Known about the structure:
The complex is a heterodimer.
Chain A: H1 7-25, H2 31-51, E1 55-57, E2 62-64, H3 66-93, H4 99-116, H5 120-138, H6 145-176, H7 181-187, H8 196-212, H9 221-228, H10 231-238, H11 240-254, H12 261-282, H13 289-310, H14 313-338, E3 341-342, E4 345-346, H15 356-359, H16 361-375, H17 381-395, H18 399-425, H19 437-452, H20 458-470
Antiparallel strand pairs in A: 1-2, 3-4
Chain B: H1 8-25, H2 30-58, E1 67-75, E2 80-86, H3 88-107, H4 116-135, H5 139-148, H6 150-160, H7 165-194, H8 199-204, H9 209-226, H10 235-242, H11 245-270, H12 272-298, H13 303-322, H14 327-358, H15 369-372, H16 374-388, H17 394-409, H18 411-436, H19 453-471, H20 474-505
Antiparallel strand pairs in B: 1-2
Amino acid sequence: MNWTIALPEIVLASTGMAILVYGVLRKQDSAPLCTMFTIGAFLITALLVVSGAAGAGYNGQFTVDAFSSFNKLLLLAGAGLSLVLSIDWNEKQGIARFEYPILMLFAVIGMMTMVSASNLMTLYLGLELQSLSLYVLAAFARDDLRSSEAGLKYFVLSGLASGLLLYGVSLVYGFSGTMDFNQLATLLAAPAAASPGLIVGIVFVLVGLAFKVSAVPFHMWTPDVYEGAPAPVTAFFATAPKVAAMALLLRVMATPFGHLLASWQSLIVIMAIASMVLGALAAIGQTNIKRLMAYSSIGHMGYALAGLAVGTPAGVRGVLVYMVIYVIMTAGTFGCILAMRRDGKPVERISDLSGLATNDPALAMALAVFMFSLAGIPLMSGFFAKLYIFLAAVQGGLWTLAVVGVLTSVIGAFYYIRIVKVMYFDAPAGAFDRRAQSLSVVVAATGLFTVFFFLYPAPIVNAAQLAAAVIFR
Amino acid sequence: MNAAGFPLLSLITWLPLVGGLVIMCVRGDEETVASNARWTALWTSLIVLVLSLVLWVKFDPSDGGFQFVESVTWMPEYKVGYKMGVDGISVLFVLLSTVLVPVCILASWESIQTKVREFMLAFLILETMMVGMFCALDFIVFYMFFEAVLIPMYLIIGVWGGPRRVYAAVKFFLYTLTGSVLMLLALLAMWLYAGTTDIPTLLTTSFPAGMQKWLFLAFLASFAVKVPMWPVHTWLPDAHVEAPTAGSVILAGVLLKMGGYGFLRFSIPMLPDASAYFAPLMFTLSVVAVIYTSLVALAQEDMKKLIAYSSVAHMGIVTIGMFTFNEQGIQGALFQMISHGVVSGALFLVVGVVYDRIHSRDIARYGGLADRMPGYAFTFMVFTMASVGLPGTAGFVGEFLVIIGALKVSFWLALLGGSGMILGAAYMLYLYRRVVFGRLVKADLMHILDLSPREWAVFAPLIVLTMWMGIYPSSFTSFWESSVAAMVKHHTAALATAVKVAGGLH
């Protein structure tokens, strides 16, 4: 048996347990060291992912291919960035406990398993490992009522979604007799072979996964959890889990159910349109920047789903490029949000940003870059993310998606430029506290990526191309 | 490689951004930063100007195709490349941009006192976007620059503008963004049909007639907002009035030309059938713009607003000229765009001079300035006359050619379009009389100072250009003669084929 195929996950899990033991046994404050160890573990895992060979193992339950490696690197990057962002914030808020990085680490193992899953059972295991860690993280500021509420809300709704997913899995198994992706693909090669019960099962699986990527109409939890959870946790929620869930959705739809495109395409189209529209409209009235980012992420998932709806390698490539750009600019935006502290307390209203351009020109410029990028204005990377999606959509003949996409991007631009307006045009409110070095580094790095992506998009696009090609049967 | 032997266009395009990076690195107290930022921006824009003069000298007017072409693969999977090049139509717009930017920087030397570094940075970014847009030979590259112009302009209006700047900035942004995303859809459709976004290839692709109409409408949404054509011109008075002087100059001088350039580069040559089909609509909108906005201009109390409305009217003449599809009309439209770029830009600077001193744009606040400011009165007069279209100034040639072109299409079109010249004379002379002549009675105007040497340095090149264009227009028209001739020929040929195909079907 080819057990080394899961070496990155095994190494990460063992390191995680070692860090846990260290954290428990060490009497003094061990959070900073545990965080550093975790970042180190992420880096080593990333190296192992890069150097690992492709193949399948564990009786075909676990697959390593270009697609899984691409997404693993991306979610490790997202997790690493949000962990770096959390260091200073947790310390100042008094929630710097060693469990934090460890929970994040186990969530990442769950996500990596999800990305590599080639069996509905593995999929579910990965998903649950991820979700369990995320529930605790959402409620990590345990003395804060809103954080506990966020954790509980996420737990209940996510539990419901898991139940739906599991029901879908059982239906699929019941009507096809297998849970293996490749066997399913072979069985369903002729779309006529799919019984109605199986289609119902697929719909339930889709619903469960749509909940995880917070696509409309399964988005209800997102604004509350984003707002209630501690800001660095929100940063984490907005990046790595989205990558994992989107990757899972891509693989499940493309590999086992790829031949049934006609059956599920319209569902994805509807979800994509609804997400783009709701993400654009509902964000307009928001005053809390974390809540705004929640609606923004719903909208962005809508654009990504538009790429999936095309159901071609070009579409999936668009989604993957979109996710890379989305993760980087979201991490940067949250870096700016975490820097919003006044008199030692975090602030998160949009009006708190008033006159930031006068008080802290560098931070204002960075946030403006991210806002223009999220709005999809060229030359920022966000424009190219949308461009690749739209190119794929019109190639697949989905003009409705392209038209709705460009129109909602105009509506979306309205609230993104409102933030720029608040920072640049309004009278200065009080200055923010001195921001931590770690935040500045993340914001600068992600900002440079966002601005200069257009110079040389080829490496990322080519990697996405390779990744997208392998999941279609 | 190309006539210059090195990627000249890319250098002209990206050099301002390098200057911007230098400005970002400046450290020190506010005074030092401001002064360094001003000088860096000025020197950068002057070097860019010199480089673009190389373009002027080395450009071969007898060649109707694209010159100085450079091409690099960029997104090969979609056959999208980074391709730059200029032809007779675009080369003078590049020069117009590179001339106006140093003038604007010089004009904001003293009037911009807050966030000087950011202002200069925004201006240099703006220059990169404008020049890049006129040089782009790939549709996606064009679109990128076209839309990216919004970011610096939004900030320039919103940060350094007047009292209602926020409203004006947001309106400007959303209006133009809505238009340009519709163009993005047209771009996607063209890419899907032709398989490439290379502009020279698209120019020779013939699109099906039914598709052309949709594409034309999508382009119209984008370019009509930019030009701006009636009835989507309402963002312009707001943006012009609230923008700082330099912002108004660039808006009027270059940004409006982006719409006209778009029509000439995309709509007319790529969509000949639809252009011919929609020409009556374009004429109607243009004539309404000319007459309606001229009348509105006549009633304005605010100097900048008056000039803003006059811009809409003058651009109406431009769109009339372009859709006549004959050489005179198109050449006239091009000439009118260049001359309007210089003249209306200069008029905004003229207003800026007194605004800097008195901080009011109300026409009623002024009167009798000729007594205290003879130099100013002279400058103002030159540009007023040019705007009116007095023979011997820049404004005459363009309008005259457009009217000749329009006469070939219809007498009534020429008559109604030409009425704009009469109305233009009315509102400009009325403005000039109220501001410059009359008795000097206002107390604070008694001690107003005439143009400073810096202001003379701002106006001198513009005066020279205005007179040069009026007295010896062929040094400008010679640039685009062969390109326009090729374009008209292509258009006529395309229409002839379309008729033949239609005839064959019946």
